[in-house]
Write a structure and sequence with these properties.
CATH class of the largest domain in chain B: Alpha Beta
Number of domains of chain B: 2
Strand order of the largest sheet of chain B: 1-2-3-4-7-6-5
Shape of chain B: elongated
CATH superfamily of the largest domain in chain B: MucB/RseB, C-terminal domain
Distance between the termini of chain B: 60 Å
Largest sheet of chain B: 7 strands, antiparallel
CATH class of the largest domain in chain A: Mainly Alpha
Largest sheet of chain A: none
Oligomer: heterodimer
Number of strands of chain B: 7
Largest interface: A-B, 55 and 55 residues
Number of helices of chain A: 7
Strand content of chain B: 15-25%
Number of helices of chain B: 8
Helix content of chain B: 40-55%
Order of helices and strands of chain A: HHHHHHH
CATH superfamily of the largest domain in chain A: RNA polymerase sigma factor, region 2, helix turn helix motif
Distance between the termini of chain A: 34 Å
């Protein structure tokens, strides 16, 4: 199978992760497109025989970090620094009504770890390599992300109220 | 005696990542610690809900624009890579001016972004004090200026409109860069303060960066790279915040979302 085909095969997984990471579909697909373009241009840096999926998620992570950074700089002009523009409307006062909102309120670095572990079902070791952080950091971010979500769920009643996000 | 149960064990238990031989020990521990058992069960349910929520995306039809992203010919990218290697070698000699690439891909030999900022600062310092000959082609011939520089740089350029942030175009000139021609646009506010935009089309490494800020002597520079095009907005006379304001206005127009 060509690498192009393998990249195409991984698009649905990139989209799933991106959707959970940034929220809305258009922004998520923009992130995926930037990721694919960069990966395509930098495919020579991918070492054959290593995990293409992990490499691709590393590329996506880097693209995302840059996009967030650019958005912050833009927003700094208005003395606002929301993590991402499309999430800015979700203030603390807003009740967490569903899991999607809960995820959105996690710090970005915790969200990335939780999503890679949960959606991509990566091992902690793979997450550490993908994000370029020590495994101890993976564990502490995962732990904190979960505890925050749990607290948010408890704050609004039983966890059974978790809602399926469309 | 088995090892004490750690928080990492509990997380792994929730994820089903625990090695077989450890699982029963943790299960036994949880049976004796109902609060933790309930907490871990909640974690497991959150994970399940997350998958339920987002697995649907896996079955959505993939938009064509995403498929197209990996169907372009790659020969050009390879040529640019070769250029980047040469550029990296050349920059290596300068020492100290290469910023570590934001992308953290160590096999890419420097992205030249630091050199971009430095050269932009030098160009600003050279031309902005000019009273009689600040530019080669004036803003009265803007269309000609832009098409001329676009032709020389081999890419369609634009002179951003910066009136909204108080600057109007004075004009521009062609400069020699490291590997080829550079376009240099000059702007001025009504108090006479000048800001320059330095554009090179030979960044080579085919990567994009976010905004960065550098200071060379008394010249402040905001710069970014959009695939092969490097942009730098420089000024010596305004605050970093004011320069950011101008740079951001240019960025918005040059890199529309």
């Amino acid at each position: 199978m060509t690498e192009a085909q393998r990249l195409v095969d991984l698009i649905p997984r990139l989209r799933r992760y991106a959707r959970a990471l940034v929220g809305d579909r258009a922004t998520a697909d923009d992130l995926v497109q930037d990721t694919l373009e960069r990966a395509w241009a930098k495919l020579h840096l991918y070492r054959r025989g290593t995990d293409l999926r992990a490499w691709l998620f590393t590329v996506m992570h880097n693209v995302h970090v840059n996009r967030v950074r650019a958005a912050r700089l833009t927003d700094a002009l208005d003395d606002e620094m929301p993590e991402l523009a499309q999430r800015a409307a979700q203030g603390d006062a807003l009740l967490v009504r569903d899991l999607d909102r809960g995820i959105a309120r996690l710090p970005a670095e915790q969200r990335a770890v939780l999503l890679l572990v949960t959606l991509e079902e990566m091992s902690y070791d793979e997450v550490a390599r993908t994000l370029g952080i020590p495994i101890g950091t993976v564990m502490s971010r995962l732990s904190r992300a979960r505890e925050k979500l749990r607290a948010m769920m408890l704050g609004q009643g039983a966890p059974a109220k978790l809602k399926v996000v469309k | 005696m088995s090892e004490p149960v750690t928080e990492a064990d509990l997380q792994a238990y929730a994820d089903g990542n625990l090695p077989e031989e450890r699982r029963s020990a943790v299960a036994a521990w949880l049976a004796a610690h109902p609060d933790d058992a309930e907490r871990i069960e909640t974690y497991r349910r959150i994970a399940e809900e997350l998958r339920t929520s987002y697995d649907g995306v896996l079955h959505e039809p993939v938009p064509e624009r995403l498929q197209r992203a990996v169907q372009r010919p790659r020969t050009r990218a390879f040529a640019l890579v070769a250029g980047a290697v040469l550029l990296g070698v050349a920059l290596g000699g300068l020492g100290g001016w290469q910023l570590r690439g934001i992308q953290g891909t160590p096999s890419t030999p420097g992205d030249g972004a630091g050199a971009l900022a430095r050269r932009a600062a030098v160009a600003h310092a050279t031309y902005s004090p000019e009273v009689r000959h600040p530019v080669e082609v004036g803003a009265d011939q803007e269309a000609h200026l832009v098409s001329w520089l676009s032709k020389r740089l081999g890419t369609q350029l634009r002179a951003p409109k910066l009136e909204a942030v108080g600057y109007s175009l004075v004009g521009g000139r062609l400069l020699p860069g490291e590997n080829g021609p550079v376009a240099h646009f000059m702007y001025q506010c009504n108090r006479g303060t000048r800001v320059t935009l330095y554009v090179r089309s030979d960044m080579g490494s085919n990567r994009s960066t976010a905004f960065r800020y550098a200071r060379e002597a008394n010249v402040g520079v905001f710069y970014w790279v959009d695939t092969k095009i490097g942009y730098a907005v420089s000024s010596a006379d305004i605050s970093k915040e004011d320069l950011l304001n101008v740079a951001n206005a240019a960025y918005q127009q040059l890199n529309p979302p």
